[in-house]
Amino acid sequence: MNPYIGHESQLSGFYRFTYTEGALRGLDAVEVYNETGLRFTILLGRGMDIGYASYKGQSLAQISKCGFSSAVYFQNGGKEWQHAFGAGLVTTCGLSNVGPGSEENGEIYGTHGRYSSLSAEQVSLSRSAAEGDEVLEVSGVIRQAEIFGENFEVYRTIRTYSRQNKIELTDTIINQAFEPMPLMLMYHCNFGYPLLNENAVLKFDAQVSTPRDAAAQAGFAEMKTIQPPRSGFAEQVYFHSGVQSAELCSHDFGVRLSWSQEALPCMTQWSMFGCGDYVLGLEPGNCFPVGRSEFLQSDSAEYLAAGESKTTALLFEII
């Protein structure tokens, strides 16, 4: 009990709503806020990914120039990913493809898969006491399935605390098909201005770091250096192994992202310092974004047996 307030929502809470105009029209979401100044939006109609996120009024995440949209506008394949990628704090990639799109036996696997176009069901919001604090928790189920093919269920829980400036995202992915299924999974975490600027410091330790292409090779020696926006910048992508946390800190505040290296052994770094496309992606996954065909041919391809589950967890902490 707090004698200074009459209702707990004065300091922290959450509420469910539906966008009513523009490309977001019809998209269900949950707004979450707490006493520390942490605030974020869970996009129920986009796989329960986290869109807008801020700390004390300052944005943590990059929002792409196309902004967020309802999944009704999403088309699988071609360049449609680029039209529908709002970025935000977390965009989940998978579960049957991460990376470039391809066609396999007449089936199209679009760029980064279909997960972020799926809507959550059985959504629940709960508030409970926990060791002198309160837990704010949003949970739901996301299904990715097709006749004669994959049948994944994802049980996602996102929680924060009234007086702690952190976000916990936990997924349990279950293969409900009656045969083994390949699983490709990557959490596209997108940090933007004002957290991201040329004075920000990026820190992480990797056992192995590999540039994806010639553009990345050219910047390899300074891959942890944040550059100011410039016109014509070519994205630089690096593949890192042996990482379990990374920090991005500006002058006023920073974010530490951590995860289980055993469950998510790969981290992709996406440095895109173009004008209007200014973003740093730190992307833990069970694979690198090489596309389904290359993934299935590799010795590291992960399969879930019939009925098998995999649990992953991300932790965002304001530091």
Protein described:
With 319 residues, this protein is mostly beta strands. It has one domain: Beta-galactosidase, Chain A, domain 5 (Distorted Sandwich), CATH 2.70.98. 5% of the residues lie in helices and 47% in strands. The two termini are 28 Å apart.
Main beta sheet strand tally, sense and closure: 8 strands, antiparallel
Shape: globular
The top-level CATH class is Mainly Beta
The number of distinct helices, counting runs of at least 4 residues, comes to 3
N-to-C SSE string, H for helix and E for strand: EEEEEHEEEEEEEEEEEHEEEEEHEE
Q: Which runs of at least 5 residues are low in confidence (pLDDT < 50)?
A: none
Span of the ends, CA to CA: 28 Å
CATH architecture group name? Distorted Sandwich
How would you classify the quaternary structure?
A: single chain
What is the element layout, followed by pairings?
Blueprint: E1 13-18, E2 28-33, E3 38-43, E4 49-55, E5 58-59, H1 80-84, E6 90-95, E7 102-104, E8 107-109, E9 121-130, E10 133-145, E11 151-161, E12 164-175, E13 181-182, E14 184-191, E15 201-203, E16 208-211, H2 214-218, E17 236-241, E18 245-249, E19 254-259, E20 266-274, E21 277-285, H3 292-297, E22 303-304, E23 309-318
Antiparallel strand pairs: 1-2, 2-3, 3-4, 4-5, 6-14, 7-8, 9-10, 10-11, 11-12, 12-23, 13-22, 14-21, 15-18, 16-17, 17-20, 18-19, 19-23, 20-21
